[in-house]
UniProtKB/TrEMBL annotation:
Residues 173-369 form the Tyr recombinase domain. The keyword Ligase does not apply. SUPFAM superfamilies: DNA breaking-rejoining enzymes. It comes from Alkalibacillus haloalkaliphilus. Keywords: DNA integration, DNA recombination, DNA-binding. Pfam families: Arm-DNA-bind_4, Phage_int_SAM_3, Phage_integrase. This is Integrase. The lineage of its organism: Bacteria, Bacillati, Bacillota, Bacilli, Bacillales.
Length: 375
């Protein structure tokens, strides 16, 4: 309900009653020449309020609104890694727009921002920022703060080609550092008769076998032949379906494992003793989880990588690390393909073309050295 007051300067203002969290929070605006103008303006605001829109008369900046939006809709509702991406994107918005009011930004302004932000960044990075800002802008429209989606039909400008996921892997020395830190962590627990962290064990298997997360999560006692040093890969955990299924490409395989990993697994199985061969290796001890999750495995990996000051990679990138190390050590493409469970060597060649290209250049150089030695 609105009321109207005439100020000492002769101008009119309206006051609209409003309650927020059980407390009075009236809306006021003045400066109208006549009571009729004040009444028309108040009726428009009341109409918007009935449609669920929240009027804002302060010139809230895009930076502050984006920050409020992130804290309202994303904080404690998305993973820590995702939340950090939102904060990084907020910093990009703040650095460019500073205190520019949200309602003063038009399509040209936003395109200039994307052009600025895209310098030295990949399409994926710029596109992710645009998606975050667009979601925020759509909510601002719903709240009645702005009328136009200035992010619509923006051209994503970028100057840096993103790495393929298969190119994101650790070097031999980095993998060596990580492996030793993981083994140290596991052995420390085993020496104290404590069960090692499941994430640490998963990471070790990922590094030394190149298995996918779902394949590792699905492992049972019966899938390990530790007397001869083999792991049988026959199924995979489908996290979305919350069920076991076939491996990718329906490719079962047997993977030879090294003596060090074998001994660690023997010690773990002895501690995880069960007469049931179908017992899972990675059953979660959390009440709402069946198996140790991919998110938890990635979190554990980030912990070790940060501790060692190494580049942050995903758990799946351990598979690419394993494959790249074997190729650089001149294991045959056929062997690597079979170990990874690829349907053909074509998949392996396509996935690791960057490694093969480097090796071909080395081969060319060494071949010419051999030929030149004939003269």
């Amino acid at each position: 309900m609105a009321s109207y007051q005439q100020r000492k300067n002769g101008k009119w203002q309206y006051t609209i009653s409003r309650m927020i969290d059980g407390k009075p929070s009236p809306l006021r605006k003045g400066g109208f020449r006549t009571k009729k103008e004040a009444k028309l303006a108040a009726e428009e605001i009341e109409h918007k309020m009935r449609r669920g829109k929240t009027p804002q008369f302060n010139s809230i900046s895009i930076s502050n609104y984006f920050e409020e939006w992130i804290n309202t809709y994303k904080k404690d509702k998305v993973s820590n890694a995702t939340f950090l991406r939102y904060i990084n994107n907020l910093n990009g918005v703040r650095n460019h727009f500073k205190n520019t009011p949200l309602r003063e930004i038009n399509k040209r302004d936003y395109q200039k921002f994307i052009d600025w932000y895209g310098e030295g960044r990949s399409f994926e990075t710029v596109n992710k920022l645009n998606k975050h800002v667009r979601s925020c802008v759509k909510d601002a429209i719903d709240e009645g703060l702005i009328d136009i989606d200035f992010t619509r039909k923006v051209h994503i400008h970028f100057t840096k080609e993103a790495k393929k996921s298969s190119e994101k892997h650790l070097s031999f020395s980095e993998t060596q550092l990580l492996t030793r830190e993981i083994v140290k962590d596991i052995n420390q627990c085993l020496s104290q008769s404590k069960k090692p962290n499941l994430g640490s064990l998963m990471i070790l298997i990922g590094i030394t076998t190149g298995m996918r997360y779902g394949e590792i999560a699905a492992l049972r006692h019966s899938d390990l032949n530790l007397r001869e040093g083999y792991i049988y890969v026959e199924r995979a955990w489908k996290e979305k379906e919350k069920d076991f299924g076939e491996t990718k490409g329906k490719m079962t395989r047997t993977i030879k494992i090294d003596q060090n990993t074998t001994e660690i697994l023997k010690a773990y199985l002895k501690m995880n003793n069960s007469a049931n061969d179908s017992k899972l290796l990675f059953e979660s001890n959390k009440p709402n989880e069946f198996l140790y999750t991919n998110a938890s495995a990635n979190k554990r990996l980030r912990h070790f990588l940060s501790k060692l000051d190494l580049q942050i990679i995903t758990f799946h990138a351990l598979r690419h690390t394993h494959a790249s190390l074997l190729l650089y050590k001149r294991r045959s493409i056929i062997y690597v393909s079979e170990r990874l469970g690829h349907r053909s060597t074509i998949t392996t060649s396509d996935t690791y073309s960057h490694v093969i290209k480097e090796l071909r250049e080395i081969d060319n150089k060494e071949t010419l050295e051999v030929i030149n030695s004939l003269y």
